[in-house]
Structure prediction request, 416 residues.
Amino acid sequence: MINIPKGTKDVLPQDSYKWQYVESVAREVSKKFNLKEIRTPTFEHTELFLRGVGDTTDIVTKEMYTFRDKGDRSITLKPEGTAGAARMFIENGLAGGVLPQKMYYITPAFRYERPQAGRLREFHQYGVEIFGAKGADTDAEAIMVADSLLKKLGLQVKLYINSIGCPTCRANYNKALKEFFAPHLEELCYDCKTRFEKNPLRLLDCKEEACKKINVNAPSILDSLCEECSAHFEELKDYLKLSEIDYEINPRIVRGLDYYTRTVFEFVSTSIGAQGTVCGGGRYDGLIKELGGNAVPAVGFAVGIERLLMLMENVGARMPEEQKPTVYFAGMDNACRKKAFELCAKLRKVGVITETDHMERSIKAQFKYADKLGAKYVAVIGGNELEQGVMNVKCMATGMSVSVAFADVEAYFLGK
Ligand code: ATP
Ligand code: MG
Prediction:
């Protein structure tokens, strides 16, 4: 027996409707905001993520699935969706088209993590990217997309926002952080000692308890923002008010990726503890240039679909069930089964969901099976019926039966 790889999951036939529901709501919400779907490759050149995610991030230093292909190229399975979207934007010259370019994706993502509830090695994201607009109204609009989705799915979440400024503010802040952390250097975890040297901002993102304790008293980045970044943050708050979206400012949010500038945000569930962050995003005005394009501002976010589903299950969120068969055809003997098969084929052609027996069950067992499937009607074809060209149609809800001619099968079931 070969088992599923650690940190991956199957979606079983009886559960896929939940995925389809979440995805359909995501597509519906996207449409309202005029976001167009994109699909980019599952793997990219490793270099894209080194540059586009950042070589001091956990993703790049520890979590990437990287391998050499048979042509000796270094390839990486995408750990997130933004870098690929940005590459696509540059490579296809979309900056030369109408701006902003608003898009969304639903994609698998791969990270070599320690698997636990809501933390997998292959997981899925719904993500949004808006390229070309620099104003805080666009940040608020991205936040509004995520907010609409989460609310539509019946989740209780809290929005945390922060600004991590521009490279100028960050230089000041990194200095302040270094001063603050220097006396605590010995108490920090191994990774944070490196972060201290390479990218002090990353210290705030550490998940080790010892580091988290020290972080609590770290200076706030909001005190280091330059005038423009401060004004941008104030504008964001205004626009969130206009959108009637509640938020809380959390100066500890720095996000896991290196390319963020100014606005960063997270939606955290108020109903579970451990992996409560369902959505993370922000502005990344430096990314397109970093990847070789002209400077184009951008903002986006990603929602973890497994975490969404987990939360929905936890709060008992309502999910419309899958459509059940309209009619189940039960045939008494071989000749009747053939007729059942034929009628099924006819009805499917006009779009009616039908089912029949494939296991040579008795009529009684077929009724049981039809009940299990949740069929609305059971159409029984016995020897007499076959001769007369009719079937006995029983409505499962009322128990009432009527006789329907084979010739009328479409007319009778269409619209039922
Ligand atoms: P975390 O702090 O939980 O590690 P992150 O900052 O690494 O999250 P992002 O890179 O912002 O996460 O990804 C966006 C969203 O994708 C997260 O909010 C989460 O819902 C989901 N996500 C991230 N990593 C995983 C994972 N390993 N398994 C399942 N979902 C994930
Ligand atoms: Mg992570």
